[in-house]
Specification:
The chain is mainly beta. The protein has strands at about 5-10, 10-15, 20-25, 35-40, 45-50, 60, 70-75, 80-85, 90-100, 115, 120-125. Helices cover about 0% and strands about 50% of the residues. Strands 2, 4, 5, 6, 9, 10 and 11 form a 7-stranded mixed beta sheet that branches. It has a 4-stranded antiparallel beta sheet with strand order 1-3-8-7, with no helix packed on it.
C-alpha cells in the first residue's frame, strides 16, 4: 500500500516563508507525478502545481508561479512545496497527491487526476 506522509506547514506572518514536504513509501515515483493542492474558504481543492518525477518538469498555477516552488528528492522519495512571500489569502490546508498519469498531470489542474492523497497540513498566514 502506498503511503503519503506530509510534514511542515504552520503559522507565519505576512511575507514570511513556509514549506510542506510529502514522503512517499511503497512506490517508486519514476513513473508518476506529484501534485500540490490546497483547501481554502473559496476552493475545496485548488491546484497549486505538479512535478513529473522522472524528468523533474514542473508546472504551476498562475497565482502560485514565482512564489511557490516544487522540488523532489529522489533518495528520500520526497516532494517539497516551498512557499515564499506568503499572504493571508494563502491560509488553508495543503495536500500532496500522486498521479499515475505522469504526463497528463502536467496539463491538468483537476484533483481527479490524482490517485493517492496525503491528509493535509495547515498553513496559517497572519496580517
Amino acid at each position: 500500500q502506498v503511503q503519503l506522509v506530509a510534514s511542515g506547514g504552520g503559522q507565519v506572518h505576512l511575507g514570511g516563508s513556509l514549506s510542506v514536504s510529502c514522503s512517499v513509501s511503497g512506490r517508486a515515483l519514476n513513473q508518476y507525478a506529484m501534485g500540490w493542492f490546497r483547501r481554502t474558504p473559496r476552493k475545496e481543492r485548488e491546484f497549486l502545481g505538479a512535478i513529473e518525477w522522472s524528468s523533474g518538469s514542473t508546472r504551476y498555477s498562475d497565482f502560485a508561479e514565482g512564489r511557490f516552488t516544487i522540488s523532489r528528492d529522489n533518495v528520500k522519495n520526497e516532494v517539497t512545496l516551498q512557499m515564499d512571500n506568503l499572504q493571508p489569502e494563502d491560509t488553508g490546508v495543503y495536500y500532496c497527491a500522486c498521479s499515475s498519469r505522469r504526463y497528463y498531470a502536467l496539463e491538468s489542474t483537476a484533483a481527479g487526476t490524482y490517485d493517492n492523497w496525503g491528509k493535509g497540513n495547515q498553513v496559517t498566514v497572519s496580517s
